[in-house]
Specification:
It holds the Pfam family GHMP_kinases_C. It comes from Asaia krungthepensis NRIC 0535. The chain has 290 residues and is an alpha+beta fold. It is 31% helix and 26% strand. The protein has 9 helices and 10 strands. Helix 1 runs parallel beside helix 2. The structure holds 4-diphosphocytidyl-2-C-methyl-D-erythritol 2-phosphate (SUD) and adenosine-5'-diphosphate. The site of 4-diphosphocytidyl-2-C-methyl-D-erythritol 2-phosphate (SUD) has 20 residues, from strand 1, strand 2 and helix 5.
Length: 290
């Protein structure tokens, strides 16, 4: 059995910098990864089957299609087509433990797709294959999910540049249980006639959490206002997070609805997460992965 963790992706900021002819928006965004993760396993001890198969379990697995449209299955299919070999590639059973809420601005599906690419490329002994262009075919967020370390995403996510060196930082993710469709939020942003925003000006390194927070205050998540307009509960979550003790910063991730709070250490993050759970919301504390 081999397994890969698909960590939640958080956009610490997200600037919409321009729009492409095909309607996609160009971004400048700092993506980091939370401790909490989906788990993808590949049962290489089982007899290989004729076709790929996926079983889904876990707290957010219900209702998620395990068929060809699942991003794990799509990743398997796109990788298979990209591998130039005359040998049949073995299909071992895959299991996805879905711990991350679906359609929640933390790229769970993209993280799963990247985990599938990593696992299968190793199992199929793909050697030096460049997974980045294959990842980009699967979705805007998949390339950054390959390495699961802080990176700045530009273009529509296919251009990855190094992030500032970051201090150790604890983070709480909070989702109030509403699924938010990404296309609807980009559409609402467009209809709001908001201006494009310049890329962020960031230093090479943040020596401590206060320096990082000071920088983050000069940035924005441009998708946050349209998301709150469509789903006011997101505003309630942000207010509640900001009111937790010693919360240094709170913002929505991606197209929502998940919001994050930043804390100095895990003790404070755990206490804040407990407060959020008391309101019936999903809340996960953990270190930002570096
Ligand atoms: C907003 C972000 C920020 O990281 O995250 P999530 O909220 O999804 O986690 C991503 O750019 C989302 O990436 P991803 O979820 O892969 O988006 P896709 O499936 O490729 O796109 C869904 C739809 O959103 C719109 N879209 C997406 C990305 C982008 N840069 N411009 C867009 O206009 C398009 O209408 C597209 O058809
Ligand atoms: N393995 C997967 N996990 C989650 N969603 C998936 C998966 N495969 C396909 N999807 C589809 O992708 C859409 C976006 O899901 P997700 O990546 O969770 O969104 P977000 O990036 O906003 O957090 C969902 O509506 C879901 O139907």
């Amino acid at each position: 059995m081999t397994r890969s963790l698909a960590h939640a992706k958080i956009n610490l900021f997200l600037h919409i910098t321009s729009r492409r002819e095909n309607g996609y928006h160009e971004l400048d965004s700092l993506a980091v990864f939370a401790e909490t993760a989906d788990i993808l396993t590949l049962d290489v001890d089982a007899d290989p089957q004729d076709a790929p198969s996926l079983r889904i379990e876990g707290p957010f697995g219900e209702g998620l299609d395990a068929g060809a449209d699942n991003l794990v299955m799509r990743a398997a299919s796109v990788l298979r087509q990209s591998v130039r070999t005359s040998d049949a590639l073995p299909c071992w059973p895959m299991t996805l433990t879905k711990n991350l809420p679906v359609a929640s601005g933390i790229g769970g599906g993209s993280a799963d797709a990247a985990a599938a690419l990593r696992l299968l490329a190793e199992a199929w002994q793909c050697g030096e294959i460049d997974l980045a262009p294959i990842a980009a075919m699967l979705g805007a967020d998949v390339p950054v999910c390959l390495a699961q370390k802080p990176q700045r995403m530009q273009g529509i996510g296919e251009i990855l540049v190094p992030a500032p060196v970051m201090p150790r930082c604890a983070m709480v993710l909070v989702n109030p249980g509403i699924a938010v469709p990404t296309p609807a939020i980009f559409k609402a942003w467009k209809e709001s006639r908001a201006d494009f925003r310049a890329p962020a000006l960031l230093p090479q390194a943040w020596p401590d959490l206060s320096a990082m927070v000071e920088s983050l205050h000069t940035t924005a998540n441009d998708l946050q206002p349209p998301a709150i307009a469509l789903f006011p509960l997101i505003g309630t979550v942000l207010e509640a997070l900001k009111a937790t003790q010693d919360c240094h910063f709170a913002r929505m991730s991606g197209s929502g609805a998940t919001c994050f709070g930043l804390y100095e250490d895990m003790d404070r993050a755990r206490i804040a997460a407990e407060k959020m759970r008391e309101r019936g919301w999903w809340a996960e504390p953990g270190w930002i992965q570096t």
